[in-house]
Amino acid sequence: MNLFGNGVNVLLKKVTSLLLAIALVPMAAFSAAAAPAPAPVAPKAVQNTVKVEYNKKQIAFPDQAPIISQGRTLVPIRPIAESLGFEVKWNEKTRTVIINKGKDNIRLVVTQKIANKNGQTIKLDVPAQIVNQRTVVPVRFIAEALSYKVEWDPKTQTVLIADNVNSNPNGQQEKPKDPAKPAKDENKPDTQVTLFDKASIEGKKVSVFAYYQVTGKVEAGSEVVVILGDNTYEVTVNKDGTFKFQREGDFDGIRSFTLKAEKDGKQDTVDGEFIAP
C-alpha cells in the first residue's frame, strides 16, 4: 500500500507539472504577439536653404530666412533694405512698409500687388506677405523698387544682388549717379502728361457713414490708384474713363488724397482735399 501510494503521488506530480507547462506556453506566445513592434523613425524633412548675397557678401537673416512659396522666391525686406543703406519703417495700423533713401520713398502695403515709388506705381507678381511676423516680398521688388540688379543661382539656391551698372559709349562700366539727383535725358520724351480731367475730381468725407469718396474722370484705359495717408488702393475705371472710389474705415486726421494715373508709360498726378459734409 505504501508503494502504491508513493507511485500515485509521483504520477500526480508529473501530471500537474505537465499541465502547468502546457498552460504557460500559450500565455507566453500571446504575450509575445501582443507586444507592440517599435515604431519606425520618420525621416527628417530636408529643406533647401535660400541664401541672399549683396556684392558677393552674404546677408544674415536672424529670425526669418528667405523662402520659396508656390514657385516664387520671397525674401525678408528689412535685412536686405538695411544692408543696401535704406531706412525701413513699419506702420502696424496700416500694415505698410515705408523705405527711404535720399529722395527715394517707397511704400508697400501687405497683401496688395502694387508698390509706390516716388509717386509711381510698381506692379508685383505676388503681394507682400507676413511670415513669422516678418514682411517678405518677391525678389522682383528688389530690382524694380530698389533699383538693384538681381539674379538667381539655382545650383546654390542663392539670390545675387549687385549694384546696377551701365555701359558708357567707351564700353566701360560705371555706377549710376546718385538717385537723389537723377540725370535728365534731353532726348527722352516727358512722361508726365495730362490724363485726369482735373475739373471733374472731387473728394468727399461722409462722417455719418464713416467713408471717404473720390470721383472723377481720367483718360479711358488708364490705370488709377488713390493714396490715403500710408495706404494705396487700386481704383476701378469705367470704359468711358469715369471712376468712383469709396472706402470705409478709420482714417482719422486724413484731409487730403492723391490720385495717380498711368497709361502707355505716361503718368499724371492730382492732389485733392476732402470736402467736409
TrEMBL record:
SUPFAM superfamilies: Copper amine oxidase, domain N (SSF55383). Residues 164-190 are annotated as: Disordered. Residues 174-189 have a biased composition (Basic and acidic residues). Residues 55-161 form the Copper amine oxidase-like N-terminal domain. Residues 164-173 have a biased composition (Polar residues). Residues 1-34 form the signal peptide. This is Copper amine oxidase N-terminal domain-containing protein. It comes from the Bacteria. Keywords: Signal.
